[in-house]
Structures are given as structure tokens and as C-alpha cells.
Amino acid sequence: MVQRKMLLDTNSYLRLARNIHPLLLREFGAEKHCLYVLAELERELNASTRLEHKFHWAQEAAYKQNRLAIPTISRKQKREIENAQGIIWDHVQTDCPGPSRVDVVHLATAFVLAIPLVTDDGAMRLAAATFEIETLMSLDLLRKMVDCSHIDRAKVREIVAYWKYWKDEPAALKDTYAHRPRSGQLSGDRARKLRKPGPSCEASD
């Protein structure tokens, strides 16, 4: 069976990687799910003294080695990602304020590769819904891991305690499915620009 990739944004990685190690490049479940990050995560960590201090463990060699697990992207896909970034960024600027440039890179990559994006950011999930990008929250991912016995409920309690200690609980912790974005529809121009073959990425006019 072909591996089913999932992409983690920076916040989701930092919420999970400390307590589930190795988090990346490790298949789980009958569908062979496997988690990846982008090189932008490393740049964000190195550029922020606050992140370096709060998540000092992320600088340990074992975690840095595991973060080398970035998805393989062809030249054609790189061009498509650059094009998608421009279109999604335009949408963010005009209709969905909140996501940063790095967030848009994650959204564009998930769109072009047709893989789910794990993010707890509400604005990112709203933007993703507009472009029909599948998203999961950290709690959704943990549930999936528990369901296939990749981790147990004791590990989930450990992770939630870690979030509470650092006052970094996802907004969805109390009500996992409250305020979930509904799938949006693209405008005609954006749909034509981003439409790709196959049902996973096709948008309705």
C-alpha cells in the first residue's frame, strides 16, 4: 500500500513531537499514514529566540535529525506550489486575514501534493476549506493514532498535561468539533487557476 503523507504545521509539530518521538517518517495504521514537515519549520525555529527558549528540546540532535523528513517535491510541483501560494495569499489578504506567509506555504504545499494538513489554527483551517484542502487538528491526529494503537490513551493524557503546563492548549481541546469550518467554494477565477485533475483537489465554480 502506498504511504499516505500528512503535513504538520509548526505549532502542531511543537505540540506533539516532544512526547511522541520519533514523530516524523514513521508509518502507522493500516493506511500507512506518515507525518512530514517543511524546511520552513527549521527556519522558524532558528529565527525566533522565544521558540528556541520555550522549545529547547527541539534543538537536540535526535529531534533535528527527525526533522529532515520533508516530503519529496518535484520541479513541476515546486512551480505549482509557487503559483498556488500567490493565489492563496491573495485570498488571505482580501477575504481571510490571519495566516502568515509561512502558513500559506503549508497550505499551498498540502494543496499541490493533495495531502492533509495538521493545524490547530482556525484561520488556516478556514482558508484551507475555501480551497478544499483537507485539515486535521492535533486532537484529530491523536485520535487517529489511538484508533490504530500507534499510541495509547495514557500517552494522550501525557500530551494534554504537557500542553496545560506550557499554557499551549489548542482551542479545540474542550470541544474538538466546535466551530469547524465548513467546506467553502472557490470563486470562478480561483477555481480555474487552482483546479487539478482528480476529485481530491477539484473545486466547484
Describe what you observe in this structure:
- The chain is α/β, with parallel strands linked by helices and 205 residues long.
- It has a single domain (4-194), classed as Rossmann fold.
- Helices cover 49% and strands 6% of the residues.
- It contains ten helices and four strands; from the N terminus they run βαβαααααβαβααα.
- The chain has helices at residues 10-16, 39-47, 49-54, 61-66, 75-95, 101-113, 122-130, 138-147, 153-165, 188-194, and strands spanning 4-8, 33-36, 117-118, 135-136.
- Strands 2-1-3-4 form a four-stranded parallel sheet.
- α5 (75-95) packs across α6.
- The longest helix has 21 residues, at 75-95.
- The chain is globular and about 40 Å long.
- The N and C termini lie far apart (34 Å).
List the helices and strands and how they pair.
Blueprint: E1 4-8, H1 10-16, E2 33-36, H2 39-47, H3 49-54, H4 61-66, H5 75-95, H6 101-113, E3 117-118, H7 122-130, E4 135-136, H8 138-147, H9 153-165, H10 188-194
Parallel strand pairs: 1-2, 1-3, 3-4
Helix pairs in contact: 5-6
